[in-house]
Design brief:
The structure is a homodimer of 406-residue chains. With 406 residues, chain A is of the alpha/beta class. Chain A is 35% helix and 20% strand. The radius of gyration of chain A is 22 Å and the shape is elongated. The two termini of chain A are 27 Å apart. At the A-B interface, helix 7, strand 11, helix 11 and strand 17 of A face helix 7, strand 11, helix 11 and strand 17 of B.
Chain lengths: 406, 406
Amino acid sequence: MKNTMIAQSGGPTAVINASLAGILDTAFAGNDAGEVYGGVHGIQGIIEGDVISLSDRFKGDPQKLKQLYYTPDMYLRTCRYKLKNPDEDSSDYDKILETFKKYDIGIFIYIGGNDSMDTVARMSEFVKAKGEDIKVVGVPKTVDNDLVEIDHTPGFGSAAKYVATSVREIILDTCIYPYANVSVMEIMGRDAGWLTAAAALAVPEGCSARPLLYLPEAAFDSDKFIERVRKETEEHGYAVVAVSEGVRDRDGNYISASETKLDKFGHLQLSGTGSVLADRIKEEIGCKVRDIGLSSAQRSAGHCASDTDRKESFKLGQNGCRYALEGKTGVMACLKRTGNSPYEVEYSSEDVLNIANKVKGVPMEWIDLENAFVRQEMINYLRPLIQGESDIPYKDGLPDYIFEEF
Amino acid sequence: MKNTMIAQSGGPTAVINASLAGILDTAFAGNDAGEVYGGVHGIQGIIEGDVISLSDRFKGDPQKLKQLYYTPDMYLRTCRYKLKNPDEDSSDYDKILETFKKYDIGIFIYIGGNDSMDTVARMSEFVKAKGEDIKVVGVPKTVDNDLVEIDHTPGFGSAAKYVATSVREIILDTCIYPYANVSVMEIMGRDAGWLTAAAALAVPEGCSARPLLYLPEAAFDSDKFIERVRKETEEHGYAVVAVSEGVRDRDGNYISASETKLDKFGHLQLSGTGSVLADRIKEEIGCKVRDIGLSSAQRSAGHCASDTDRKESFKLGQNGCRYALEGKTGVMACLKRTGNSPYEVEYSSEDVLNIANKVKGVPMEWIDLENAFVRQEMINYLRPLIQGESDIPYKDGLPDYIFEEF
């Protein structure tokens, strides 16, 4: 019987550790997963041999596993590391295989987004080509909700719940003044506007105004934007704007103040879109404007996670481990929505080659361009994903998250 | 029997409406408070005759009163309106009196911060001088915690709990990378560093790093700051900075990018301190930096309110109404801490003249300048204020706040 290695990669979410807890739950339930190890800092840590025993740390300790289940961000730390084409340079792969052999690994489970699924695809092909009996399985996560083949990504529902909750509170905070007042909230999502769309859920019962939503899928027109904000402040006395960090003008230029930089995957690093728009409103309309940049708080707000999301993330972790134990490799744990009222999902495994490096944007027909809002189809899609509040453990007034240094 | 008028003023908190609910609870309990009215948009609304009946809207509806109790921000809306010296210009006072007479008001309760307590003091003096039998009472609120005579202000504990929760989640979000990483969080508090200090509570058990805290009470040294962040990233691989929006250099200049403007009370309007420091770290250290500006989300996060704070706010509202019914005027409902373990407070009324326009900063001996942190006395002071999670009502995945348009 061989052993199991798990690692986490990419940006955090509120529920990646719930997936890790799900994998551990299934791995510890029988004996077929062997000893369970964690690669610290994703595939980069495995290359460098940075490995800890998760069996030692969690097996036989359901209380600690429960604490992990509720802890946001990434217990095993992360990396942003892109494997090269092994035909050109196989040195990373050789080092990974060395670590796998050292720990007698038969199962490798990688929790991550579309870049990480590229790693799953490449590693799965590589070990197959080498004739090694190692099953490589992906477990999805990303607040961006931009993976294909899956109805929605784990982590998205929690970020959406936090965004909708915060926007609702900001609506209540913005509508109270006897003079025109605007709040601009920059929302995460480089290329996909799913999280910005979640602000649509925020509208309180009895409120006649709507937040103005700007998704990166549609070209951003600065003049129309100012016109719309002006109309809103004239009609309602206030406006709340939720704008994706990745909105671009008609020519494809980012509406961002700061210079654009490339991250290690060649993605543009953006910031400042909200500030640019806040300044523009101040200049052109001259009213009071607040620039709210929740930034990474959106992806790490474990205290406001969706219970639906957390449970699904746990289940996807369990399934990922089960698929590997059943001998599957090169697959990602997946879910499809089979009903919306009542909300129901079906779980399955999908070929990771169909998922890696692909991006799912918001369908244009779900965007209501004229009203800077979204259509009912989007509301119906989003609503079930934010349902349920998890009963997270508190200690001394704060969420009692697990934190270990290795 | 005369009637009661209530209004809210200044910036929102998560629990001002809990004070409003407390006032209504006491006013509705007997018959001595008469009909209860609300001035919409504070004293400015009362000048303009913008009044609604709160008896009509809440009396005999405990469910709705409970919803109000849990709703952040200001049900009755707000204003920032400074009354002039009545000896120079009494026109506002005359209009207020006109509204009071129209509704046969015998009690006026104003919920607000130190500017609002100035209004309470002036109104109380004015009606006395006019020989009118109107009791004027203040109920405190402000996330800044900068009122004198009171141990801590209602609203502060909830903002502190939200800040500490968010900083804890950001610590977990920042520590996960295999390369140096810094998060900079700008915290509210123009002149008082109480809320920034609350970030000290965020440190998770088992974490050897501390967030770096910069309060406005101490002069900010940019070179020392960079040196400290560099040391932190070298030792721990990451740093989390919590900086007050109001920090100033040795010469008293704000560390703020944007031009400074004056609000209606002559206070400086600040923003951008966090962005300035984030840019400076990028330039001088060259590592990855996230600039997190929670802004008004800090004061309106009802979903993360402190139950201790909410209960005290309700009680202070009840007391404010009771003091007025007992015939007191020119007083503010107050609380003093009488014990810390167990935490206990005593309620009292204090002369509003001792409170209006005064500001309570953080004592310098509670700041640990060398370590950019706070001393144990501050931790002991803060800890009881964030205790308890309120069981807020949820509907369809989001907090079920009351929202009415008038």
